[in-house]
Design goal:
Layout: H1 4-21, E1 37-39, E2 51-53, E3 58-62, E4 69-72, E5 79-82, E6 91-98, E7 106-109, E8 113-115, E9 118-120, E10 123-125, E11 129-131, H2 138-157, E12 161-168, E13 174-180, E14 190-198, E15 204-206, E16 209-212, E17 215-221, E18 224-227, E19 231-238, H3 245-248, E20 251-253
Antiparallel strand pairs: 1-19, 2-20, 3-6, 3-11, 4-5, 6-7, 7-10, 8-9, 12-15, 12-19, 13-14, 13-18, 16-17, 17-18
């Protein structure tokens, strides 16, 4: 670890992995927010909450108190040693092996830590820790995380929508429509406007939207409908996402 060649190659490798990965959780991929209720913006388009998907980790324990750790120097090109105050036997989480040309492996520690007022990513030589399992290479860790992101995103996209909450756009409210058939045997449904309106600020739950020609009507209960164009979305309630516990543990909401 003390040779100039290894130190330089490690610095370059860390710079590469950090630029690709970011500090701690890499690849800034996003998915719908994990909350089952999502709030909507004023333009009636649902806001997409974002979340970060962390790397999978391997637990390691510190061999000796105050081990030598590294972080990227202020010049952004070299590594500098730092002392964090880890104690012997303390558990830490490792994410991947930093690619280097040296004989000793260097591991990236999950997350960031505040050092002298700055949040930095830390790296630990294999000589300083006892690892409980196999730590993946950087490339393998990125591949696994990309697969995890896709699985999680698909799970959120495929959730069942329970209902939406809507409210009128206009200060004048939204006109109420009633559905009817011209005859009892008729299969075709028509919509007729009434003189009634729902007032501005009034909120309604709906679990059904009916398309009639080019117009969509939102059902608000008691045989009443309003035009979708006359209302805006307040929130949407989704069924709980179906994910395994290990995948749920990788999600960090922003």
């Amino acid at each position: 670890m003390k040779t100039k060649k290894l130190f330089t190659s490690l610095a370059a490798a860390v710079m590469l992995s950090t630029s690709l990965a970011g500090s701690g959780a890499v690849l800034s991929q996003t998915a719908h927010a994990a909350d089952t209720t999502q709030t909507a913006s004023t333009n009636s388009q649902a806001k997409k909450g974002t979340m970060t998907v962390k790397y999978r980790t391997v637990t390691a324990t510190i061999k000796n108190t105050n081990p030598t750790l590294y972080t990227i120097g202020d010049d952004g090109k070299t590594l500098k040693p730092v002392t964090i105050g880890y104690t012997k036997g303390q558990a830490i989480q490792l994410t991947y092996i930093v690619p280097t040309s040296g004989k000793n492996k260097v591991y990236a520690i999950e997350g960031t830590m505040n050092v002298n007022g700055k949040d930095v990513q830390l790296f630990v030589p294999e000589t300083e820790v006892t690892v409980s399992g196999t730590v993946p290479t950087f490339d393998d860790a990125v591949k696994q995380r990309t697969a995890d992101v896709k699985t999680i995103q698909d799970a959120f996209n495929n959730r069942d929508l329970k209902y939406i909450v809507i409210t009128p756009k206009s200060k004048k409210g939204a006109k109420i429509y009633y559905a009817y058939k011209k005859t009892k045997k008729s299969k075709k449904i028509y919509f007729k406007a009434s003189k009634k309106k729902i007032k501005k600020g009034k909120k309604f739950k709906s679990s059904m939207i009916v398309k009639h020609g080019k117009t969509r009507y939102v059902y608000i209960g008691k045989k009443r409908y309003v035009k979708q164009s006359a209302v805006k979305l307040v929130s949407a309630k989704y069924a709980p996402v179906k994910l395994s516990d290990d995948l749920k543990s990788l999600i960090v909401e922003n």
